[in-house]
Amino acid sequence: MTRRFSLFALVALILARGFLTPCTVLLAPCSSAWAQQPKKIPRIGFLFIGSTDQPHLDSFRQGLRDLGYVEGKNIVIEYRYAEGKLDALPALAAELVGLHVDVILTTTLRASHVVLETTRTIPIIGVGLGDFVDGGLVKSLARPGGNLTGLSNSAGPGMRGKQLELLKEAAPKTNAVAMLWNIDAGRLASGAIEEARTVAKALAIQLRTYEIKDAGDIEHAFDDTKKFHINGLLITGGPVTTKNSTRITELAGKLRLPAMYNTRQFVEDGGLMSYGVNVREIYRRDATYVDKILKGAKPAELPVEQPKKFEFIVNLNAAKQIGLTIPPNVLARADKVIR
Question: Which among 26, 74, 151, 189 would be 20 to 30 A from 212, CA to CA?
């Protein structure tokens, strides 16, 4: 009793002298406990249909660094790769959900639907997908309404037509084009193919379309070039064509075929030219969506972002390889010329 009385008397004396306030005395133990709790490191998951050689991941990591996130230090990224096997996606998605990640990133419509079937609570960010609405992922671009949002790579109507027009201007003798289209595009592909056919007819170009499901479909399309006198290529995006970009550009060069690609990756791999969205920019900006969600933003209220930057890239080394001289008026419109 004497010890307890002495302690209370000491506290009363300290308060009376003005050294501490009552609130300070009462909260000091709690404040100390709060200060000792380690800050939770956010963990995000990234699900790919392809393999580890993803060409745009560095842009995403740079976007994170710009926002103060350093992988392995104050943010953890769990990578999962399906290696081109679509039936592997459900198990990989379940793994990420089981890790209780704070957000999951997907890069294809197929993978996005699989993750949506696996979780309706963990936020999902689609990276460079096509039309989110037509793809059945969100209710509207302005207000997605569920647990998925992201950044689209869809340029809307007119992209395939513009690509064909540039191909015809760069290689005027082109009159038979093979179009390799993305199997993952689903319903979106029909509109793009119809648009390409309409423009091809106006340009006096015969268009043959090839559905690309795997690397074998790519080889088949190139095997047909002699049979159908194909003298031009239109390569659209997708996990299979992207993964096999080097092989596609090698075959196009070997067969001396002028080719129009959808992203600069193909041109940097030796392809002739590309016109489309800046995919690196999409991946870099994707980091801003991760940041917003980690800070409390809800995917249902976070608008899907449409692409703002388009670029036309020409590779003069590739042109020389196939014996093609790019007209000056075409070069003048290029955002970048590789010499």
Answer: 151
Q: Where are the domains of the chain?
A: 43-154+279-301, 159-277+310-338
Token look-up 């002298």 returns: 17
User: What distance in Å separates the CA atoms of residue 101 and residue 6, rounded to the nearest whole number?
Assistant: 52
Output 24-29 pairs: Cβ under 8 A, ≥24 positions apart: none
What is the residue whose two structure tokens read 């991760």?
A: 290
What does the pLDDT read at residue 224? 94
Residue 265: pLDDT over 70 = yes
How many angstroms separate the CA atoms of 176 and 174, rounded? 6
| CA-wise closest residue to 244 among 280, 269, 276, 210 | 269
pTM of the model: 0.80
Between CA 274 and CA 259 the distance in angstroms is: 8
Which architecture, in CATH terms, is 43-154+279-301? 3-Layer(aba) Sandwich (3.40)
With vertex at residue 179, the alpha carbon angle to CA 173 and CA 181, rounded to the nearest 5 degrees, is: 160
In contact, 64 and 294? CB cutoff 8 Å? no
* pLDDT higher than threshold 80 for residue 83: yes
pLDDT, tens digit, 9 for 90 and up, residues 190-213: 678 888 999 999 999 999 999 998
- Res 6: pLDDT: 52
Q: Give the model's pLDDT for residue 242.
A: 84
Buried b (16+ CB within 10 A) or exposed e, 192-229: bbebbbebbeebebbbbbbebeeeebbeebbeebeeee
Find out whether 129 and 182 touch, Cβ atoms under 8 Å: no
DSSP state of 40: P
**Mean pLDDT in residue range 156-176:** 93
Alpha carbons within 13 A on the beta-carbon side of 212: 27
Do 99 and 122 meet the contact criterion of CB atoms below 8 Å apart? no
Contact 318, 253 (CB under 8 A): yes
CATH architecture of the domain with range 159-277+310-338:
3-Layer(aba) Sandwich (3.40)
Average pLDDT over residues 51-64: 91
